[in-house]
Each structure stands twice: as C-alpha cells, then as structure tokens.
Amino acid sequence: MEKNVIVLAGMIGAGKSSYTELISKELGSKAFYESIQDNRILELFYKEPKRWAFALQIYFLNTRFRSIKQALLDQNNVLDRSIYEDALFTQINFEEGNISEPEMDTYLDLLDNMMEEIDNPSEKIHLIY
Fold first, then answer.
1. Contacts with 52 (C-beta within 8 Å, 6 or more apart), sequence order
2. End-to-end CA distance of the chain
C-alpha cells in the first residue's frame, strides 16, 4: 500500500501547526509537531550560537528523522516541520560562521545516509510551503 506523508514548511509563526491540525483532522490522520519543550540545546544555542549550532542541527535532524519514520507507519500523516528543511537552516548557520566546514560535511553525510533510509518509491512525501 502506498503511504503518503504531508509536510508543512515555513517560517516561525507562519501557521504550520494550525494547518497541520486542520489537515490531519480532515484526513483522519495523526499530526506530528515540532517539540521545543524537550529541546535542551535550543536555549544554549541562543546564548552561544557558535558553540551550539552543530549540536542543535544534529538534534533537529535526529528528532525529525524519528518523526518522519513514525509518520510513514500510517497513511496520510502530517508533519508541521521536517528533515527536508533542516539542510537550509544548517546552511544558514554555516554561512554565518556558526558551523565549521568539517561539521557541515558531517551533517550533510549524515543527512544523505538518513535520506537513503526513507527513500522508498511506495512512500510519497508531499511538501507544502
């Protein structure tokens, strides 16, 4: 059976969580939300971005990878943020000097490895911006 996952992407405050809830209710599916309460690194990042940017991006990558794997267990689940946006934010941190070139290379290698795990032709992921 083909599985579909709907992913919303956008800036903070754009309404991703609200739309995620509406779409999941309409489809009778599960909604997956970004959890910032469990993120112990976020506050540290805001205090010292150069020290914590790489750890924060790895944290996001890991939690979003976990969410997308869980979302692919059922049909038509909806995520309010996902692994697909992470490379953009990591690139911005790299360009701002918060992430070194070796860290960026490590991040991209890990991202590619994770994408191989979820790249399945019977599963479709639809991005909504």
1. 41, 44, 45
2. 26
Do 42 and 35 contact (CB within 8 A), yes or no? Answer: no
pLDDT tens by residue, 65-107? 988 888 888 878 888 887 878 888 899 999 999 999 999 999 9
Q: pTM for this structure?
A: 0.81
Helix (H, G, I), strand (E, B) or coil at 7: strand
Instruction: Give me the residue label for tokens 């191989």.
Output: 116
From 93, 63, 92, 94, select the one nearest 80 (Cα to Cα).
63
| Pairwise CA distance, residues 116 & 35, whole Å | 25
Active-site residue list: 80
Q: How do the domains of the chain map onto residue ranges?
A: 3-128
> 3-128 has which fold?
Rossmann fold (3.40.50)
